[in-house]
């Protein structure tokens, strides 16, 4: 279904005639043309197999060519070409995808069975994590920033002193 949507959008752009390109275009049109390329890039990046990724890569190359030729009559399309080039540059370092024959998917498309039972984590009081939100400990666990950033707002103290079931952010 996503492949059909992408092809349909790209074919629409490909069928635009010179008189269409020289007509009035709303200021957000350059973003809309860019979104088609972004959607194609997303499909390329998330394609499970090399064949599918190559298909999207080829279609994006064709779309870029169409936009660059069309931009001679509609300069706002230059923006979409530049964004496609930037997107392609980011995706050039993608890991090599396996061939379709190498993918190990069951005939029904169902993922492999789990090896163990699925269980919810338990909180400090021994109850299930999903039973009551009030039992969660909202202490900051993210360690990506120095704690001075939290200290200046008194976040650490507020979180330690907050009664169970309330969040300092709610106050």
In total, the number of domains comes to 2
Average pLDDT, rounded to a whole number, is 74
Task: Report the β-strand fraction as a percent range.
Answer: under 5%
**What would you call the structural class?**
mainly alpha
InterPro entries: Carb_Metab_Trans_Reg
Keywords: Nucleus
Region (Disordered): 111-137, 151-171
Protein name: Fungal specific transcription factor
Observed structural traits:
mainly alpha, elongated, 171 residues, single chain, 0% strand
Task: Please give a structural write-up.
With 171 residues, the chain is mostly helical. It folds into 2 domains: 2-100; 122-165, no CATH class. 48% of the residues lie in helices and 0% in strands. The chain contains 7 helices and no strands. It has helices at residues 2-14, 18-21, 29-46, 50-70, 77-91, 148-151, 155-161. α1 (2-14) packs antiparallel against α3. It is elongated. The two termini are 46 Å apart. Mean pLDDT is 74; it is low at 128-143, 155-163 and 166-171.
Q: What's the helix and strand layout?
A:
Layout: H1 2-14, H2 18-21, H3 29-46, H4 50-70, H5 77-91, H6 148-151, H7 155-161
Helix pairs in contact: 1-3, 1-4, 3-4, 3-5, 4-5
Brief write-up:
The chain contains seven helices and no strands. The protein is mostly helical.
């Amino acid at each position: 279904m996503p492949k059909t949507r992408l092809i349909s959008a790209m074919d629409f752009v490909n069928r635009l005639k010179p008189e269409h390109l020289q007509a009035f275009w709303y200021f957000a049109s350059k973003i809309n043309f860019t979104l088609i390329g972004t959607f194609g890039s997303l499909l390329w990046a998330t394609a499970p197999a090399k064949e599918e990724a190559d298909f999207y890569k080829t279609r994006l190359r064709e779309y870029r060519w169409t936009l660059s030729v069309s931009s001679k009559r509609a300069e706002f399309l230059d923006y979409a070409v530049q964004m496609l080039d930037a997107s392609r540059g980011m995706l050039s370092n993608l890991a090599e995808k396996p061939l379709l024959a190498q993918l190990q998917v069951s005939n029904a498309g169902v993922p492999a069975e789990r090896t163990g039972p699925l269980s919810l984590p338990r909180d400090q009081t021994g109850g299930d994590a999903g039973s009551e939100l009030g039992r969660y400990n909202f202490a900051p666990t993210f360690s990506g920033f120095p704690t001075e950033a939290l200290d200046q707002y008194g976040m650490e103290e507020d979180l330690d002193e907050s009664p169970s079931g309330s969040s300092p952010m709610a106050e």
